[in-house]
Design brief:
The complex is a heterodimer. By secondary structure, chain A is an all-alpha fold. Chain A has a single domain (2-116, 147-295), classed as ABC transporter involved in vitamin B12 uptake, BtuC, CATH 1.10.3470. Chain A contains 13 helices and no strands. By secondary structure, chain B is α/β, with parallel strands linked by helices. Among the domains of chain B are: 253-338 and 425-514, 3-Layer(aba) Sandwich (Rossmann fold), CATH 3.40.50; 350-422, no CATH class. Helices cover 34% and strands 25% of the residues of chain B. Chain B has 18 helices and 22 strands. The chains are: A mainly alpha, B alpha/beta. Chain A binds chain B through residues 169-175, 177-179, 181-182, 184-191, 299, 301-302, 310-311, 313, and chain B through 52, 57-58, 82-83, 86-87, 92, 94, 96, 98-103, 107-108, 110-121, 162.
């Protein structure tokens, strides 16, 4: 019975949303890139770079929002680097993406080591604080859970709405969806395939970096090695789970966050009987199961991973 | 209003080279309001290149494209800019549609017509304009379903609406009826006539002579990159057009032939495949020592015929006998029975570019005693076999170990021919054997095929090249729309007769043979 009571605790939902926030940023970012036809496997590294850049900027005295902007900028630059190889030069998106991940991760760790040669305790910053919106607390369970979130979580929610709005309600979104399906259609209408894809990569990668920045600037308040821990890869899977739709991406990220928060609480309940590793595996196993169920019918953007070379059929 | 108005487009001395190949040579062409002009030519005659220049995808080496604006003032179209071509009112309906299939018809039409930074998509306004266009032209299409749920005819109507929505004054239709049913094609022609009456200039590219005669006002024929005819359609007939397209007198020297032996391939009312490449009830017999040519515009079922012989497709009706047994179940069995193959697209189906000359050569005999022992490939034996083939077939390459991609097209084809002939095949499938080859390699390949026939192999030659068909074939059959005419002795055929049969009008010669 106790296992079900967890679902009624505001603290559980607060944790679920907190865990989901970086995933929301990441999955919306990946979704924008893939809608334009580019698989961005640099996501894991861009998370690390964003986490490091935002945190370091604040540590060195910048304002919190300036730190967020710097993280986004760093992400966008890595996105453009990815685009240089995959869009302009038409190289393999897989290989480039893995390369970007290795490069961005190493660069961030290296920068950290150079800046802090000998620390045992990761230096902390004054991070984003919960907004504590009083009005929300009137709603049972979910209200107090939302009230505990920081501004970055609300920014993530806003990004979902904004992405949906742009994709489905603006000429730009139309062009992004078209370029990921049949770039020739965009070319034939006089729009720039490369321009659209580079733009989508920059914007999507900026969002991925915000996912990383959330971790150092709102969750852990510090940067340390191994902190991203596969969150980027989870976003790639969630994108398929979401069928490339922002609203489903939000649901997917929240579900994953809920699973993860749930397993932590279940561990304390069932501690000692079942090894804790089993619980740690749970969200990943569930996401694989969900992926298998959904992805079999997934409608991939038809031009995903296909470089566009003018004049070729 | 009817009749032909003032000129709207002039191509002046347009030329384009790709390396040594002259794709377009000083082509002049004009288009007038209300006029439907046919652009004709064999594959490789330069039609596509010319259209790509017009649409800004290629930059011409010489000459210019001049456009008249609504007031009649002429100016040069900026080179290499599809945006400029669109803005100037040139609309193009490509043979391969340029629609995003995840978007609706409406979304495809308005794609790129509104400022990208605009914060809203005005669908209602667009829908009104498109509805008016549809009423005026009779081109109906569903605007609210994603395009991947529409049929080809509807997709094509969307493409035309897309061009008209952008206020096209010149409409280029590239092989528009290739994918349409006859009824859909009729609807398209009615719409084209309406549009021309309203003052649109239409450039119509087609292989189908009947359509050209029925629909167009003027004919422009390209051959080997040059304009060879520009005349009114009135007064022309199929025979004349076929001759204009083919041009030269074809060399009629007949190859020597061995006495035909026993049949190596018999097709009796065989049907196979599906969709566009479907074969229906075809009859064909090839005897040992005989070369039978299959003429036809590609895409009329030749690919399925080749697949049947190679073991890649199975007959769904009728009886097939290949070298003493039924249809081969797979390519492995076809090869084992004695089929040698030259595939239509050698780069895609015939070879592995990154593997060496020797490896590609032994690909089809890798299980035979000669090149393997205990399941391991004997590299020395493979290399020796390659050296023999390189010498015998005069294959120019850096060596037996060089990756195949380093070789020229002609030398690759010689290697593939060496491979096909290595097992002394009794039936050779030669599918477009000299496509893309230079003159020297073509002569070489032809000589090899003739010699193989003299030595007793039957040859199934599939080709779009009249010269090749007449140079090699003892008998020729024509494929059109998945049906095959009887094979007729090559001496009693000429280019015009074959051209007509390719357009679906087999003459008395073929009927007499049936």
């Amino acid at each position: 019975m106790e296992a079900f009571e967890i679902l009624l605790q505001a603290n559980f939902w607060a944790a679920a949303i907190r865990i989901a926030t970086p995933l929301i940023f990441g999955v919306i970012g990946a979704l924008i890139c893939e809608r334009a036809g580019v698989l961005n496997l640099g996501i894991e590294g861009i998370f690390v770079a964003g986490a490091m850049a935002g945190w370091l900027a604040v540590y060195l005295g910048a304002g919190l929002w300036t730190g967020v902007a710097i993280a986004a900028l760093v992400g966008a630059l890595f996105g453009l680097l990815h685009g240089l190889f995959t869009v302009i030069l038409g190289l393999s998106q897989h290989v480039t993406g893995i390369g970007i991940t290795l490069f961005a991760t190493s660069a961030a760790y290296f920068g950290y080591r150079v800046a802090f040669p000998s620390v045992t305790e990761p230096p902390r910053i004054m991070a984003f604080q919960p907004l504590d919106l009083a009005a929300l607390k009137l709603i049972p369970v979910i209200g107090p859970a939302l009230a505990q979130q920081t501004a970055l979580t609300w920014l993530a929610f806003a990004c979902v709405a904004l992405a949906a709005l742009i994709l489905y309600r603006t000429p730009l979104g139309l062009a992004i969806r078209a370029v990921g399906d049949n770039p020739a259609s965009v070319d034939a209408q006089g729009l720039s395939v490369a321009g659209l894809r580079m733009g989508a990569l920059a914007a999507g990668s900026a969002l991925m970096a915000l996912g990383g920045a959330f971790l150092t600037m709102s969750a852990f308040n510090a940067f340390f090695f191994g902190m991203i821990n596969g969150r980027g890869w989870v976003c790639i899977a969630l994108t398929v789970f979401a069928s490339w739709r922002p609203e489903k991406a939000l649901i997917g990220a929240l579900l994953f966050g809920a699973f993860d928060a749930y397993q932590v609480r279940l561990q304390t309940l069932a501690g000692g009987i079942v090894p804790s590793q089993v619980f740690l595996m749970m969200p990943y196993i569930l996401s694989i199961v969900a992926l298998v169920l959904v992805a079999r019918r997934a409608d991939y953007p038809r031009a995903l991973m296909k470089p566009y070379i003018k004049g070729e059929r | 209003m009817s009749g032909i108005g003032e000129a709207v487009l002039r191509l002046e001395g347009v030329g384009k080279r790709f390396g040594a190949l002259v794709a377009n040579d000083a082509i002049d062409l004009s288009l007038h309001r209300g006029e439907v002009v046919a652009l004709l030519g064999e594959n490789g005659a330069g039609k596509t290149t010319l259209m790509n220049i017009l649409f800004g995808h290629y930059v011409a080496d010489e000459g210019r494209v001049m456009l008249a604006d609504a007031a009649g003032a002429w100016s040069e179209l900026p080179r290499g800019s599809p945006q400029a071509a669109l803005a100037a009112g040139i609309g193009m309906v490509h043979q391969h549609f340029t629609l995003a299939e995840n978007l609706t018809g409406l979304e495809n039409i308005i794609l790129g017509t509104q400022a990208w930074y605009s914060l809203r998509l005005s669908r209602r306004e667009a829908r009104k304009r498109i509805a008016a266009l549809m009423r005026r032209t009779g081109l109906q299409a569903d605007l609210d379903l994603p395009v991947d749920r529409l049929g080809v005819g509807e997709r094509q109507r969307l493409e035309i609406l897309k061009a008209l929505y952008r206020k096209a004054r010149i409409l280029v239709l590239d092989e528009p009826t290739a994918v349409l049913t006859p009824q859909e094609a009729e609807g398209l022609f009615a719409a084209v006539r309406t549009l021309a009456r309203e003052g649109l200039a239409v450039l119509f590219i087609s292989h189908k002579l009947g359509e050209v005669l029925a629909l167009t006002d003027r004919l422009v024929v390209l051959r080997s990159g040059r304009k060879v005819a520009d005349r009114p359609t009135a007064g022309a007939d199929r025979a004349l057009i076929a001759q204009l397209m083919v041009g030269r007198e074809v060399d009629v020297a007949r190859p020597a032939r061995a006495e035909p032996g026993r049949p190596v391939l018999v097709l009796d009312k065989v049907g196979a495949g599906q969709g566009r490449g479907r074969l229906s009830a075809i009859d064909l017999t090839i005897r040992a020592g005989e070369i039978v040519g299959i003429a036809g515009v590609s895409g009329n079922g030749q690919a399925t015929l080749a697949e049947l012989v190679a073991g890649l497709a199975q007959p769904i009706e009728g009886r097939m006998d290949l070298l003493g047994s039924g249809a081969p179940a797979n390519p492995f069995e076809a090869i084992a029975r004695g089929v040698g193959r030259l595939s239509e697209d050698r780069h895609r189906d015939g070879m592995v570019a990154e593997m060496s000359v020797a490896e590609n050569l032994i690909m089809e005999q890798r299980w035979s005693k000669g090149v393997q022992r205990f399941g391991l490939i004997r590299r020395d034996a493979a290399r020796d076999a390659a050296k023999v083939a390189i010498a015998a077939f005069d294959i120019r390459c850096p060596g037996a170990e060089a990756p195949l991609r380093l070789l020229s097209g002609g030398n690759i084809q010689k290697l593939l021919l060496a491979r096909a002939l290595a097992g002394a095949p009794r039936l050779i499938l030669a599918n477009q054997p000299t496509r893309g080859l230079d003159v020297g390699a073509t002569v070489e390949v032809h000589a090899r095929l003739r010699r193989a026939a003299l030595e007793g192999a039957g040859v199934l030659l599939i080709s779009e090249d009249f010269d090749e068909l007449f140079a090699l074939s003892h008998r020729i059959a024509v494929m059109h729309g998945g049906a095959l005419t009887p094979a007729v002795a090559a001496q009693s055929l000429d280019v015009q007769t074959i051209g007509l049969a390719m357009a679906g009008q087999p003459g008395a010669v073929f009927e007499a043979a049936a």
